[in-house]
């Protein structure tokens, strides 16, 4: 059916994002309900109630459920969806360590250690170990035999010893380990603690005011990697694994352990490796995915989330097997796409393929994690656009903090919430994405090509040493990864839509129908086989049948020479009757195109991506310039079949006809694209009258001044994050506050704080009978002042503070208000307490295991100069500011909004921002017009100012991580070492770096 314009203009909460709401402190009902109102004002449609580091309210305790219910009830009244999260932090499966407290439910590994004969003879044998004498050449296995008790290995032979070992205890699991997720009894225990408790305490809310539950990063434990507490010489193990292996495959795994762990000389692929990973995959699905889906269905709630780890074929092999297999069991399959510059776009394509094949109409993405406070609205758009293009229509933003107290402020910033200066403007972003979701609702991709997913070729090549964390180390696996990336890029850059076919799914859900291949509920004309070493016999059977019935099978590049990970010529025989092409961009694009594709010409042809959807008699098209750095003018586009087209502008909700030329039943148009710009078109098979679309109007250029009067939305900020600390006469520093905190903890024998520390609720619950040591700590900050002015001091967690002295004089601890977050109190500093020159601020606090030494912040009408990049000095506020970085104009740490004022420009002005640094710009006149996305253009009447809205990066950091540009921001980013640490402040440019272009198009 045609897109509904009224829904498109103001989409309902159904289409809007539901962020992770980080419950990370001592929860208060009134504050929770206030924050729900903030979510609604920001344009969200709901939230996931998610325990995070710092939670002080007992997880799954009585108060926890009372607050869950209060939020669900209030959210329902506010038309906001409430969603559960099934774990205390992540990964799901332990219930904050409670489910894995019993040792029988803890994760285990099968470990290999290697010795020479003397080392082997001298060691104490484990009662359950198995030993093999192995002949190795350059680390590759030549041959081996089982060593019986008392038998010695031969000269030069390596003894490989295999034994079972429990996973290490970790603070992220509150001192327990991860769960044995291949053990159905262990998973049922987790469900009984978590899901059944929600059923008992929330009851009828499940399926009504509580929509569903998110499972986060469950996995079957790591294989051949140190990632996630694994080991390069270890694989996941569960009781009875050997027996189950023999039952399913007919031979004994324990007799072939060296083949599993080593790379075999002249046999790079081995069936035992492929069988082992398949078994672990099946056990994980049977034990975790199936019962989760069953429980959710029985209790009428939606099962969603994502599993670990999806970025590459290697990452999937290391932690899971094949993620597409898990998506079958989710009501709303999901992924997480962390980092701003994540270019693993096939993450979405894999999930979207399985979702559509299994008849699921929503796809979730947990996005924006690890991106940092410096992100702009354009950055959020860039990260979200390609995901929307490939099928994401349920956005779960990471992360919105309940509080910034303690470690909360370092938990993968930024907080996409009221703590950000731009939160009142954020609805602009959410309106945009919800309009895309609304426009594409119900439309089905015009996709006729199936590409076999080659992940199982990595399985068959796995061995200890093949992987570097979750990246490939093995040369042949690297080649498989490259072929996978290249295939995706060749097809998408040619605008050929396709979907992946997982061989495990094909085995039970694939069949041939009238010369086409049907996978679940999706029908494909052609199958592309490329970048594979091995193929399942069941897949081979399907492709033979497809070929026999006239369907098209295309082999690009090397033909698989293995079937079921055993050497075979059968696929080569099939390829002899199919289409064979070289593995090149042009060959793949030429063989896979069917003539209906959208085309783009000129230098933009590889950067303009497109997807076409069928919606009844109409078509819907989304175009995207994937290049974030280049704009393109008048790109010749063929939109495909149709007689007329209209443009649906997701940025402002406007709809207007598109002037196209029709030729032989296809529509042609020239379109310009800004950096990262998108287009939505509704294409009809009915002729529309010729109407002009909006055109830019010419006008007279208005020259802005070189310097501006200005207004700040908040007081200026001076960060004080260097201090001396003393306790019982022992002094540390001066040093940065986080290292000072660690020095105090070392002195008191307390564990460090951090993103994976034990939770406050857990420590209070398990140690409530012990005396909690409380010590008095003095923290001294210093700042030099060249002027005297009124100022306030922002401090954290004032309830722990006994006294604050400014130059030896105590100030009142009665707050004048909060600052940015309720955890920060503002305290007035009498002007007469300050002196020109060096000033000391001494904070005396009660310190216990839940405390922390943090920065303090001076607030006031002053400027800040950084001497030698590291010594803040208070100076006078500048009278005016100029274009350029305001960090060098007295505002190095400022993170609010700044308005550049000038003489009112009467009439209607068209403004195009030049280079500016901030989250967004706002034109100030008779109206306020947000400029959030490229090309940052807008019109306003009687323009008198331009406001730039900043992120909080230059206030909250990381302020000392070097170099500044990093692939991600995490808790560890705030405590870097060596060359990654800078004593100077590492800041981002901010402000209006160049003058905007202003044209008066309708003067008064």
Automatic annotation (TrEMBL):
User: What name goes with this protein?
Assistant: Glycoside hydrolase
Taxon lineage: Bacteria, Bacillati, Bacillota, Clostridia, Lachnospirales
Question: To which species is this protein native?
Answer: Murimonas intestini
Q: Which domain of life is it from?
A: Bacteria
């Amino acid at each position: 059916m045609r897109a509904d314009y009224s829904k498109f203009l103001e989409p309902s909460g159904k289409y809007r994002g539901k962020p992770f709401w980080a419950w990370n402190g001592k929860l208060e009902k009134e504050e929770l309900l206030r924050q729900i109102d903030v979510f609604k004002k920001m344009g969200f449609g709901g939230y996931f109630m998610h325990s995070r580091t710092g939670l002080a309210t007992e997880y799954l305790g009585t108060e926890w459920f009372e607050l869950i219910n209060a939020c669900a009830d209030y959210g329902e009244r506010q038309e906001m969806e409430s969603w559960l999260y099934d774990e205390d932090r992540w990964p799901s499966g332990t219930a904050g360590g409670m489910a894995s407290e019993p040792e029988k439910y803890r994760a285990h590994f099968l470990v290999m250690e290697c010795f020479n004969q003397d080392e082997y003879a001298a060691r104490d044998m484990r009662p359950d170990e198995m030993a093999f004498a192995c002949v190795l050449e350059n680390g590759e296995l030549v041959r081996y035999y089982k060593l019986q008790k008392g038998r010695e290995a031969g000269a030069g032979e390596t003894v490989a010893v295999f034994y079972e070992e429990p996973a290490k205890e970790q603070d992220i699991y509150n001192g327990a380990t991860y769960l044995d997720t291949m053990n159905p009894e262990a998973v049922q225990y987790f469900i009984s603690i978590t899901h059944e408790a929600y059923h008992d305490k929330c009851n009828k809310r499940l399926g009504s005011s509580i929509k569903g539950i998110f499972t986060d990063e469950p996995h079957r434990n790591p294989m051949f990697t140190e990632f996630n507490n694994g080991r390069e010489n270890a694989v996941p193990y569960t009781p009875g694994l050997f027996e189950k292996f023999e039952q399913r495959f007919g031979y004994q795994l324990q007799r072939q352990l060296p083949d599993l762990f080593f790379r075999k000389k002249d046999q790079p692929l081995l069936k035992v490796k492929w069988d082992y990973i398949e078994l672990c995959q099946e056990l994980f699905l049977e034990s975790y995915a199936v019962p989760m889906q069953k429980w959710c269905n029985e209790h009428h709630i939606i099962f969603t989330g994502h599993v670990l780890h999806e970025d590459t074929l290697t990452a999937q092999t290391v932690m899971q097997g094949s993620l597409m297999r898990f998506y079958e069991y989710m009501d709303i399959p999901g992924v997480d796409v962390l980092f701003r510059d994540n270019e693993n776009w096939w993450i979405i394509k894999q999930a979207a393929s399985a979702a559509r094949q299994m008849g699921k109409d929503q796809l979730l993405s947990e996005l924006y994690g690890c991106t940092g406070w410096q992100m702009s609205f354009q950055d959020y758009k860039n990260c979200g656009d390609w995901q929307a293009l490939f099928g994401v229509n349920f956005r779960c933003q990471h992360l919105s903090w309940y509080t910034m107290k303690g470690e909360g402020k370092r938990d993968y910033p930024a907080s996409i919430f009221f703590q950000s200066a731009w939160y009142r403007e954020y609805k602009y972003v959410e309106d945009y994405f919800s309009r895309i979701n609304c426009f594409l609702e119900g439309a089905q991709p015009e996709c006729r090509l199936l590409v076999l997913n080659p992940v199982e070729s990595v399985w068959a090549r796995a061995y200890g040493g093949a992987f570097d964390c979750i990246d490939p180390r093995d040369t042949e696996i690297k080649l498989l990864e490259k072929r996978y990336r290249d295939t995706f890029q060749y097809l998408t850059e040619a605008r050929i839509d396709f979907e992946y076919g997982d061989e495990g799914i094909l085995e039970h859900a694939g069949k041939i129908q009238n010369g086409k291949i049907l996978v679940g509920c999706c029908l494909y004309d052609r199958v592309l086989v490329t970048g594979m070493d091995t193929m399942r016999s069941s897949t081979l059977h399907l492709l033979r049948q497809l070929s026999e019935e006239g369907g098209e099978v295309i082999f690009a590049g090397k033909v698989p020479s293995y079937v079921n990970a055993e050497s075979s010529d059968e696929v080569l025989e099939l390829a002899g009757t199919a289409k064979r092409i070289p593995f090149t961009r042009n060959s793949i694009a030429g063989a896979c195109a069917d003539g209906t594709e959208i085309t783009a010409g000129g230098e933009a042809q590889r950067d303009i991506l497109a997807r076409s959807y069928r919606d009844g008699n109409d078509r819907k098209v989304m175009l995207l310039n994937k290049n974030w750095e280049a704009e393109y003018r008048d790109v010749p586009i063929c939109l495909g079949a149709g007689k007329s087209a209209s443009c649906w502008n997701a940025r402002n909700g406007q709809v207007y006809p598109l002037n196209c030329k029709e030729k032989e039943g296809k529509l042609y148009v020239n379109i310009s694209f800004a950096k990262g710009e998108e287009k939505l078109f509704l294409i009809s098979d009915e002729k529309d009258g010729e109407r002009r679309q909006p055109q830019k109007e010419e006008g007279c250029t208005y020259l802005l001044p070189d310097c501006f009067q200005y207004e700040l939305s908040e007081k200026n900020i001076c960060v004080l994050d260097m201090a001396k600390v003393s306790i019982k006469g022992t002094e540390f520093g001066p040093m940065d506050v986080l290292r000072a905190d660690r020095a105090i903890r070392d002195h008191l024998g307390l564990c460090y704080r951090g993103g994976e520390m034990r939770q406050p609720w857990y420590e209070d619950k398990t140690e409530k009978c012990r005396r909690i040591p409380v010590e008095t700590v003095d923290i001294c900050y210093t700042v030099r002042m060249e002027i005297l002015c009124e100022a306030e001091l922002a401090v954290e967690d004032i309830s722990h503070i006994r006294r604050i002295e400014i130059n030896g004089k105590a100030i009142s601890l009665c707050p004048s208000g909060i600052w940015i977050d309720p955890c920060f109190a503002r305290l007035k500093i009498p002007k007469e307490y300050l002196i020109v020159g060096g000033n000391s601020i001494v904070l005396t606090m009660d310190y216990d295991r839940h405390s922390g030494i943090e920065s303090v912040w001076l607030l006031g009408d002053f400027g800040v100069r950084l001497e030698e990049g590291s010594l803040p000095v208070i100076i006078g506020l500048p009278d005016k500011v100029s274009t350029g970085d305001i960090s060098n104009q007295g505002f190095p740490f400022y993170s609010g909004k700044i308005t550049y004022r000038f003489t009112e420009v009467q009439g209607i002005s068209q403004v195009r921002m030049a280079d500016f640094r901030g989250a967004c710009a706002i034109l100030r006149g008779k109206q306020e017009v947000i400029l959030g996305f490229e090309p940052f253009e807008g019109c306003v009447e009687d323009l008198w100012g331009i406001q730039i809205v900043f992120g909080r990066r230059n206030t909250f950091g990381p302020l000392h991580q070097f170099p500044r540009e990093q692939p991600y921001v995490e808790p560890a980013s705030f405590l870097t070492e060596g060359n990654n640490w800078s004593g100077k402040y590492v800041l981002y440019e901010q402000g209006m770096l160049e003058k905007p272009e202003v044209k008066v198009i309708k003067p008064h």
